[in-house]
Amino acid sequence: MAFRARKIGNTSLFEGKSSAENAFTLVIGDNGCGKTQLLLDICNYYQMLYGELLRSNSADIKVLRRDYYNQNFKWDIVEKAFGYEIPQKLICASTSQFEKFTEDWKLNNDFVQGGYYAYIGSKPFIPDRLPSTRMASTALNQLLARDTYDDRKIQSLRQFLLSFGFDDVLKITLEPIFSLAELTKVKNGDDTIAPETQIALRNAYKHYDVTDISELNVLMELVIDEPEVLLCFSGSGVLLKYLCTDKEIAYSARELADLLMSGLVSVADIETVRGQSLSNKGLSASARIRPLASRSSGEQCLFLLFLGIISSIDDNSLILIDEPEISLHPSWQQRFVEILNKSLQAYSGCHFIIATHSPLIVSDIAINNCEILDMTERRLMDASEHRLRSSDYYLANLFHNPGHSNEYLIKTAIYIFSKVKAEKKFDGNDLRNLKMLNDFLPVLHKHDPLIELIEMLNEVYHKYG
Question: What pTM did the predictor assign?
Fold first, then answer.
């Protein structure tokens, strides 16, 4: 099976064949043309379908639950039972401070580990917390909230981290939402707890019952006592270690995920660690720690985006990414789709829909199963027709904004000149290119040298046309 989001409303999203390979749709267009709204519409549509699936009284849903938990499950059973395609996981990701994805969407009877919907972004706003730490907290929760670990997930994460010099060990600093004194009051049933504590508990009860909260309160004491933890990604999953003691950590990765999900504990800081030995119980003497916040904004964005996506992804997922080029160096923009495809090649049947303003990201389309949706002209194109072209080509032909002295257009004009000079005539291709050049005249700056070239070509056309 392979999931493909084929259409939303009257907009076609992908027309290629389904295959085990991952597919890509790059959504481009002017500001205000509806790229972000399209991603939101897609997200809302599949949330609605999944909600209908879980609310169904069909006996098939009971079989699906049983098989899922017995790890004897194939997602295409959903299609057969309900008659429509639906992704196995819905992931919405953006490092923009202005993205509009839903922060929290959850169904109480969801049977997908970590939840059907994964949000990767900087919401909710937390005072005195950098956006990077807020995003890391969300991503780590997605990664840790699993009863079993998929080897592919750990391998993908390690490959990405090692490829970009982050190494496969992270140091995180945890911070409980309230103090030890307030925690003692909560455990003793004291009704003088602070209003902030009451609000935190009320939010936690949205996800957990009284017994669960009592257990989490016990774990919070451990976090207050030892707030710094090493997260080590190994072949057996995620290992948790204390930094400065020889004692074993007293809670599991899943319990840490519950603490993060409840909101009773948050990630206050995240740092990358190099030279850490997995055989050491604590921090290795040779280990070198570097705060994520000290890295460039581009490195932080790339790290957080990939940490979140890899932590959340399953086969046959739908991944919506809004403006991934933010803060990325041009070389990383140009390699973004390649990095994404390579990092997640262990997963199959996924559909990535990426809204972008970057011609460099569009230039990185030398892969199969990639299409370009131009929201300005409302047309869907096979990306193979536009692969391995210059940035000026993309600016002119796809982004409809050639800029000043566009080299692709200048070379096109010169080529027509030399060809017509030799053959004394315009063929069909020459006429199509001349029309394209004339269509750009209204948007060119009055001092652009291309204008004179186009006018001279028009004179030649009147002579030989």
Answer: 0.87
